[in-house]
Design brief:
The chain has 197 residues and is α+β, with helices and mostly antiparallel strands. It has 7 helices and 8 strands; from the N terminus they run E-H-H-E-E-E-H-E-H-H-E-E-E-H-H. 38% of the residues lie in helices and 17% in strands.
Amino acid sequence: MRLWLLDILACPADGCKHYPLKLSIFEWEDDSAKRILNAGESYAKGDVGNMKKELKGSVKVDKAKEIVEDELARSSMEVNKYISLFKEKVNSIFRNVVVDETGASTQLINAIINFNPPSSLDEPFEKAIYLANWLAFKVNVQSGILVCEKCGRFYPIIETIPHMLPDDLRDKKEDKEFLSKWRKFVPKKILEAEGIT
């Protein structure tokens, strides 16, 4: 699951439909954890070159015209409008990652959350734009859990796929296997509600 999905996923339960959901990451797909750690080291040194390469032109920053076009905005925007959108996406995506149990993305997510965009396109803001786009769109959560804070339901992420099914369509056996496998990371409240100790 790509992190950008946190921007659109809502609880599918009848009568709930709560947004946003909270994400706990248990493991990253294949080499994603290593790539994230390497990106963290590079970002700390002020280098976003590898992120730019992976984004393959999907992020365009024109400092002279003060215009940004990226995957978060999905269109070209003047920087004064983009700043509001950037803050909104930080809130809807990155603030809803409750924990990364691998620790790989924690530093980068905190860097995005704690970044305070200036009123113009300076170099640190440009780097934060590349970082946010790369982390939202280029790495996959292999296993994790999405939790609805309103109704308390959980939705497992299994082999990168969020299983966003309403109660009547869920595979209870699969849910129990998932919860048993990841019990050390699953919130106690969910384990107790599902009868897993």
